[in-house]
Write a structure and sequence with these properties.
single chain, 531 residues, Alpha-D-Glucose-1,6-Bisphosphate, Chain A, domain 3, binds 2-acetamido-2-deoxy-6-O-phosphono-alpha-D-glucopyranose, binds zinc ion
Length: 531
C-alpha cells in the first residue's frame, strides 16, 4: 500500500465537470466515463478489506438492466451484502478527486476516520457481466488494487448474485456457518442438490422458457442446468446472444417485460406456456404467460413474494415450529392488491421500506424468515440463525412434520440469501409450483393486480423532491403532497406517490386505481402536479 503509487497512477477523469455519485446501484453511467472510477474502487475495496481485518470484499462490474453502452460498479461486503451505507460517501468523495493530491487526501481522511491500519493485508475478488466495456474497466480496477497491495482474484464473467455468493463463501469457509464451496461449480452444486431434494416425488412441470436478456444469465444458466437432469427440470433458453453487439437488454429481459407489461417480441408464447425473464446481470426475475384469450399476464416480484410467503408459512405450520415468525418486506411500488393479499389472506406482517435492495434486505433481517421482493423482480428470502437452528434441530414426530422440515431445510440451501438471484429465485418458484402441481394461471389466482402506471417526469432539479414514510409521501416541495392527496381522493382504490429516481435524472410517479382508465388519468394528473 503506497500513497505515492496511488497518487502517481491516478486515472484522469474523462470530463472535467462530470460529477460521480455512489448511489443505490453503486456507480452507474455511460461506460466511457468509468475508467477513473474503477481505479478508485480498487483502492476503496482494499481499504474496506483492511478495515475489516482482511476479510474478502467483492467488486462487481455491471449495469444490470441498463443499455449495453452503460456500465457500473459496486462493492460487496463480507457477508455478501451491499457495501455498508456509511462508506458510500467515501466512494463518492474519492471518485470526484481529480488529481493525485486530492485523491491521497481523500484516502487519508478515510484511513483516519475509520482508524484503518494500512499494514493489514487486503483481499478482494471481482467479476463482471458480458458488456464489451468490461475488460478495459477491469484493467483500471486491477491497477487500483495493485497500488493498494491487495491480494486480488479475478472470477471473470459472473452473474451479480454469484459474486455475492462467492464473497460469503470465502469469508465463512471453515466456520460453523460456512456458506458453500467458493466456486461456480460449488454454487451450481449447492442449488441443484437442494432443488432435487425439494421436488423429489413430484411430477415435473412442463418446460420453462427462460429469456436471459442476452446477458450473463444465459451462460450461467446453461452451465447450471448441466447439474439437473431434464426429467427433473426442463428449460428452454432464449435471448442468449451474449456476443452480439447491441443485443444486451434490447427488447428483452425482466425490465423490458415489467415496464412494458408484454413479452419480448422474440418470444412465441401460447396459452399453457411457461415463461420467465432475467435481467442483464441475472439478479432479477419475472414470470409471465398468456391466458386462454391470449391476454398477457405478468407474475412480478409481488406475485413471487406472495407465493413464497404462502408456501413457507404452510411449511412452518406443518413443521410445528410456530416460534419461527415469517414477515414480508415490500416497497411503495408493490401493487396494493399484493399487500392486501399478504395482510388479509395470509395474515403475514408486511413492512414497507424505501426503494433499493439494501433497505429491503436490512428490514428482512428483522424477521426469523424474511421474504423481500421489489415489484421489479429483485428479491430473496432470509433465514435468521435462530430459524436455521430450529429447522435443523427440531425432531419430527410425524412423517408430515418430517417432510415439512426437510422441505424448509432444502429451501435454506436453494435460496441465495446474500441478494436477489434470478437462477435461485426461479428454482424457488419452480419448487413451489411443482409441489402444488400448479400452472402459472393457478398461481396467478391468489389475487388480481390493480391496474398501475409508472410515469417518468423530467424536471429541472430532481433533488428538491424529498420524501418520508418509505417514499410514500412528499415533504418537499411544500404543498405538493396536499395536491396529490386531493387528486387521489377522487379515485376508487386510488394510490399514488412521487419520488426522485436514484438511478436516472427524473422523478417517478406511480399510480394505481380500480380501472385502467382511472389509473391513467390519476397518473397523468399527479404528473402534472409535479411538473
Ligand atoms: C437500483 C436498485 C433497485 C431499484 C432501482 C430503482 C439495487 C441493487 N438496485 O437498480 O433495487 O429498484 O435502483 O431505481 O439496489 P430508481 O431509483 O431509478 O427508481
Ligand atoms: Zn440486475
Amino acid at each position: 500500500f503506497s500513497l505515492e503509487s496511488i497518487k502517481n497512477n491516478i486515472v484522469p477523469h474523462k470530463y472535467e465537470d462530470f460529477v460521480y455519485a455512489y448511489g443505490t446501484a453503486g456507480f452507474r453511467s455511460k461506460a466511457e466515463v468509468l475508467d477513473s472510477v474503477m481505479y478508485i474502487v480498487g483502492i476503496l475495496a482494499a481499504l474496506r478489506s483492511k478495515k475489516l481485518n482482511g476479510a474478502t470484499i467483492g467488486v462487481m462490474i455491471t449495469a444490470s438492466h441498463n443499455p449495453e453502452e452503460d456500465n457500473g460498479v459496486k462493492l460487496v461486503d463480507p457477508r455478501g451484502e451491499m457495501l455498508e451505507q456509511s462508506w458510500e460517501g467515501y466512494a463518492t468523495k474519492m471518485a470526484n478527486a481529480k488529481d493525485g493530491e486530492s485523491l491521497v487526501q481523500a484516502v487519508n481522511e478515510i484511513i483516519s476516520a475509520q482508524k484503518i491500519n494500512i499494514e493489514t493485508p487486503a483481499s478482494v475478488i471481482y467479476g463482471h457481466d458480458t458488456r464489451p466495456s468490461c475488460p478495459d474497466l477491469v484493467k483500471h480496477l486491477e491497477s487500483g488494487l495493485q497500488v493498494s497491495g491487495a491480494q486480488a482474484k479475478n472470477y471473470g464473467v459472473l452473474t451479480t448474485p454469484m459474486l455475492h455468493y462467492l464473497v460469503r463463501c470465502l469469508n465463512t469457509a471453515g466456520t460453523s456457518d460456512a456458506y458453500g464451496e467458493p466456486s461456480a461449480e460449488g454454487y451450481y452444486k449447492k442449488l441443484s442438490d437442494a432443488y432435487k431434494t425439494a421436488v423429489k416425488g413430484y411430477a415435473r412441470l412442463s418446460p420453462l422458457t427462460v429469456d436471459c436478456a442476452n446477458g450473463v444469465g444465459a451462460i450461467k444458466l446453461r452451465e447450471f442446468i448441466q447439474h439437473i437432469p431434464e426429467e427433473i427440470l426442463a428449460t428452454n433458453v432464449i435471448n442468449d446472444q451474449t456476443t452480439t453487439l447491441g443485443a444486451l437488454n434490447k427488447n428483452c429481459g425482466a425490465d423490458y417485460v415489467k415496464t412494458n407489461q408484454r413479452a419480448p417480441p422474440t418470444a412465441t408464447i401460447a396459452p399453457g406456456d411457461r415463461f420467465c425473464s432475467y435481467d442483464g446481470d441475472a439478479d432479477r426475475i419475472v414470470y409471465y404467460y398468456v391466458d386462454k384469450d391470449n391476454v398477457f399476464r405478468l407474475l412480478d416480484g409481488d406475485k413471487i413474494a406472495g407465493l413464497a410467503a404462502m408456501f413457507i408459512m404452510e411449511l412452518v405450520n406443518d413443521a410445528g415450529i410456530d416460534s419461527v415468525k415469517v414477515g414480508v418486506v415490500q416497497t411503495a411500488y408493490a401493487n396494493g392488491s399484493s399487500t392486501r393479499y399478504l395482510e388479509k389472506v395470509l395474515k403475514v406482517p408486511v413492512s414497507c421500506v424505501a426503494t433499493g435492495v439494501k433497505h429491503l434486505h436490512h428490514e428482512a433481517e428483522k424477521y426469523d424468515i424474511g421474504v423481500y421482493f421489489e415489484a421489479n423482480g429483485h428479491g430473496t428470502v432470509l433465514f435468521s440463525p435462530a430459524a436455521l437452528n430450529t429447522i435443523k434441530t427440531t425432531e419430527a414426530k410425524t412423517p408430515a412434520q418430517n417432510r415439512a422440515l426437510q422441505q424448509l431445510s432444502a429451501l435454506t440451501e436453494l435460496i441465495n440469501q446474500t441478494v436477489g438471484d434470478a437462477i435461485s429465485d426461479m428454482l424457488l418458484v419452480e419448487t413451489i409450483l411443482t409441489n402444488r402441481q400448479w400452472s402459472l394461471d393457478a398461481w396467478d389466482q391468489a389475487y388480481t393486480d390493480l391496474p398501475n402506471r409508472l410515469v417518468k417526469v423530467v424536471v429541472a432539479d430532481r433533488t428538491i423532491f424529498k420524501t418520508t414514510n418509505a417514499e410514500r409521501q412528499v415533504v418537499e416541495p411544500a404543498g405538493l403532497q396536499a395536491e396529490i392527496d386531493a387528486i387521489v381522493a377522487k379515485y376508487s382504490n386510488g394510490r399514488s406517490f412521487v419520488r426522485a429516481s436514484g438511478t436516472e435524472d427524473a422523478v417517478r410517479v406511480y399510480a394505481e386505481a380500480a380501472s385502467r382508465a382511472e389509473t391513467d388519468e390519476l397518473a397523468y394528473k399527479v404528473a402534472q402536479a409535479v411538473y
